[in-house]
Amino acid sequence: MDKLDNLIEVVKKSHKGGGDSKIKMQHNLHKMTARERLQSILEQGSFIEIEYF
């Protein structure tokens, strides 16, 4: 695996937050994750996340 592939994997994992179980727990409590909250208030394409971890 080269460095770019490694970075892509790290970014994918960071978007999962605490993992699928934590996301499901938030949804069961009728809450959104932090990324979901940001997506709901920002215009599409107006925000670029520059630090993933």
Describe this structure in words.
By secondary structure, the chain is mainly alpha-helical. It has one domain (3-41). It has three helices and no strands. The protein has helices spanning 3-15, 20-28, 34-41. It is flat and about 40 Å long. The two termini are 20 Å apart. The model has no long low-confidence stretch (mean pLDDT 86).
Task: List the defining traits of the structure above.
CoA carboxyltransferase N-terminal domain-containing protein, ClpP/crotonase-like_dom_sf, single chain, mainly alpha, 53 residues
Low-confidence stretches: none
Portion of residues within helices: 55-70%
Number of strands: 0
Order of helices and strands: HHH
Biggest beta sheet summary: none
What proportion strand? Answer: under 5%
Category by helix and strand content: mainly alpha
Morphology: flat
Number of domains: 1
Rg over CA atoms, rounded to whole Å, is 13 Å
**What is the residue-mean pLDDT, rounded to a whole number?**
86
Number of helices: 3
InterPro entries: ClpP/crotonase-like_dom_sf
Protein name: CoA carboxyltransferase N-terminal domain-containing protein
Organism: Clostridium tagluense
